[in-house]
Specification:
The structure is a single chain. The chain is built from twelve helices and no strands. With 244 residues, it is mainly α. The protein has one domain. Helix 7 packs antiparallel against helix 8 and helix 8 runs parallel beside helix 11. The two termini are 26 Å apart.
């Protein structure tokens, strides 16, 4: 089964890099992303781009943006192109098809993020590393790597569920956009939270180590993703997909 999963994942990645994602991003557009987030923005932020703890939030959530465009096309796109029937008619098992598509979206998300991380690190060292080599603090670096994988997995899991049920790529994109809004809503509303509540929350977290928070959040993401994947496995019914 592992070989079949890899076969499906390679097929999906080839299509992503050949035709672009559901939003029409091609390889050229990926280079634009690397240029903006790997060169332009790091030059504007300077040394803080690799030393500030805020960077871990940037690297952690970036994959959600990349993957959300890819996953909308996983099933809904094949349904529109009338290639889903051919894929489902192969000897590949349901699990191989589902996990192969999940793996492709996951790899696309964290790989693009890691490439941008490396590009930004090189940029900052060239522009601001005259006093010595600059590198991400170890804990922040490992956290960024871990959360880039977890967030890629979260976006891939949500996207597969959406793409399975969506009638078109446009509908899948709209549903993913709504999901992104819900996820980012707390960050947008934080400015409206009374300062007394924020101070109380800060006092509660004073005795909690950042590593404990990170581990707890990582475990929470992992549990959510496993639940979403389990739901996707139940919804993935080959006969129903062919009829749809």
């Amino acid at each position: 089964m592992i070989a079949d999963v890899i076969t499906v994942a390679v097929k999906e990645l080839r299509e992503i890099f050949t035709f672009g994602d559901a939003r029409g991003r091609s390889r050229f557009s990926m280079l634009i992303l690397i240029l903006i987030f790997g060169i332009v923005i790091p030059l504007q932020n300077g040394r803080e781009w690799v030393t500030s703890p805020i960077s871990i939030m940037v690297w952690g959530w970036m994959p959600f943006l990349w993957v959300s465009g890819v996953v909308a096309d996983l099933f809904a796109g094949e349904r529109e192109r009338h290639t889903l029937e051919s894929l489902l008619a192969t000897r590949l098992s349901d699990q191989a098809i589902l996990f192969g598509k999940l793996l492709a979206a996951l790899m696309y998300g964290f790989t693009l993020t890691w490439v941008i991380m490396i590009a930004s690190l090189i940029t900052v060292n060239i522009g601001f590393g005259s006093e010595g080599l600059l590198f991400y603090p170890f804990e922040m670096f490992m956290g960024a790597l871990a959360f880039s994988i977890l967030i890629s997995g979260l976006s891939a899991s949500i996207g597969v569920l959406v793409s399975l049920r969506a009638g078109s790529v446009r509908q899948a994109q709209q549903m993913m956009s709504a999901g992104m809004l819900v996820l980012f809503l707390p960050f947008m509303l934080i400015q409206f939270i009374p300062s007394a509540w924020l101070n109380a929350a800060e006092n509660m977290l004073e005795n909690v180590q950042p590593m404990q928070i990170a581990v707890g959040l990582a475990l929470l993401l992992l549990v959510v993703e496993l639940i979403l994947i389990a739901i996707a496995r139940r919804l993935f019914q080959r006969s129903k997909l062919i009829l749809d």
